[in-house]
Design goal:
Shape: globular
Helix content: 55-70%
Number of strands: 0
Distance between the termini: 43 Å
Number of helices: 12
Strand content: under 5%
């Protein structure tokens, strides 16, 4: 890591964070979530639900994820990156705006409203807080710190998107401690979601947009998994279909993301 004065000489405010040190930061971030989860968590093996009670949601998720947000915010503050983390100036073509729009619409439609109506008010409120915490914490770490680490390293936007998304996906392998080998498949899916959230950042130009999309996306997914009896919904099918559709669209149009440079007069 270089000090603040080195960054100022480079024309960029704040300290520098190399990508190996970023990986160290990520390991600490994951350690906070997993470690606190072990310390404060409660056993839910008796239930098919991921969060059968309000207490389990608070102790197994809200407390450790909340602590990780404090850590990520402290890192951004120490680096002095708040200005550029909140705003990302890398425009894209107009069609990319449909990525956050479609994700927001499907997340709202896909919420399992009927199942949530059968749950306690406290559990639903904590679920909404969980979505907020996940959106803020993970976006601050990966589309905030991570994207800027690779961007400051001089990488192209394509590589910034790829590497930040891969790290985002690999972090979710840590879920294998509680979910087994299916976490490997989850990590691959999460990597593609990370790329979508990166496009949300570029489409909106502010990190608040991917935070919102990410938070609602996860809330919609977890809305099927709370309470004593988890319940699948048609919304899950919509989310899976959109994920597949976005992957196909981006594979086809990946070379048409960057805006067309204006012609230089002869």
């Amino acid at each position: 890591m270089r000090d603040t004065t080195d960054s100022i000489r480079d024309g960029r405010p704040g300290r520098e964070l190399s990508w190996p040190w970023f990986l160290v930061v990520v390991v600490v971030y994951v350690g906070i979530i997993q470690g606190l989860g072990q310390l404060t968590g409660v056993d839910t093996s008796y239930s098919d639900s991921q969060f059968p009670t309000t207490e389990s949601l608070v102790r197994n998720a809200l407390i450790p994820i909340g602590a990780s947000i404090v850590f990520a915010a402290a890192v951004v503050t120490w680096l002095g990156w708040w200005g550029e983390v909140l705003h990302y100036r890398a425009p894209v073509r107009r069609w990319v705006r449909w990525v956050p729009i479609s994700m927001l619409v499907v997340a709202l439609v896909g919420l399992n409203y009927g199942h949530l109506a059968d749950q306690s008010v406290s559990l639903v409120v904590c679920l909404l807080l969980l979505g907020l915490f996940v959106g803020v914490g993970e976006e601050l770490m990966f589309r905030g710190i991570g994207v800027h680490v690779f961007h400051r390293a001089g990488l192209t936007e394509g590589k910034v998107a790829l590497y930040s998304s891969l790290v985002f996906g690999l972090v979710h392998v840590s879920n294998a401690f509680g979910e087994g080998t299916q976490a490997i498949f989850q990590a691959l899916i999460v990597s593609t979601s990370g790329y979508f959230f990166y496009l949300c950042l570029r489409a909106g130009g502010v990190i608040l947009l991917p935070m919102l999309v990410h938070g609602l996306w996860d809330t919609s997914l977890v809305s099927n998994l709370v309470g004593d009896e988890p319940q699948a919904s048609v919304g899950m099918v919509l989310i899976i279909l959109l994920q597949v559709a976005l992957i196909v669209v981006l594979l086809v149009r990946r070379r048409r993301i960057e805006p067309v440079a204006p012609a230089v007069p002869a």
